[in-house]
Prepilin-type N-terminal cleavage/methylation domain-containing protein (Bacillus coahuilensis p1.1.43), 143 residues
Amino acid sequence: MSKKGFTYIELLLVLVVFSIFLSLGIIVVDQYRKTVQSHSFLKEIESDLYSSQVTSINRAQKTNIQFLVSVNRFVVKNFNTGEILLNKPLPHYVKVDPYSSLLNWSYTKDGTVDKFGTLKLYVHDQPYYITVQIGHGRHLIYE
């Protein structure tokens, strides 16, 4: 009498090995997703800051940048008229450090800044810094 097929122990062993590989894959994919979200958010915020600076230069008007900690939002306003140019909620995985030296600043009509300092953000609990430099309104984003 010949045996054909697999025993229950063999099937159970294959399922255990498969579930281990699957759980490892989920961990790797989750870390990759967080990395992609972090880089995407930082590129977006950098683009918004450059856009605000260009708007100030093109309109020859002062533009105010604010990070509102209490409501976790990023707001750009026309300094003279109060017109809101951008009102964007920050994603749930982004937290602004309320003790940062720079929670708001303005781009003047020639693109320079009225004050300088560093804004600390936590993206997926990883600290990132936005440093606004005096002079031509340059800003750096780094870990």
User: Anything to note?
Assistant: The first helix runs from residue 8 to 59. The helical segments are 8-59.
